[in-house]
Design brief:
Order of helices and strands: HEEHEH
Helix content: 25-40%
CATH topology: Factor Xa Inhibitor
CATH class: Few Secondary Structures
Length: about 70
């Protein structure tokens, strides 16, 4: 059976922490900030990363070859 290939697009977007958690970038931080509330821009600026949700962990893990 051949090895599964890692999805390179996913590997560039998701980071695996030392404890094995999956981290992703927060959406909405790049442009069009004028129409956004200060709270939402502040949340994306502070940290800028979030955990991958529980419903997506299995799928993202498979894309990463885990």
């Amino acid at each position: 059976m051949p090895k599964t290939k890692t999805s390179r697009a996913t590997a560039k977007r998701i980071k695996v922490t030392g404890t094995g958690r999956l981290r992703r970038r927060q959406a909405g931080a790049k442009h069009l900030k004028v129409g956004k509330k200060p709270r939402s821009t502040r949340l994306t600026r502070l940290g800028g990363e979030a955990n991958v949700s529980a419903g997506d962990r299995r799928r993202v893990g498979r894309l990463l070859g885990r």
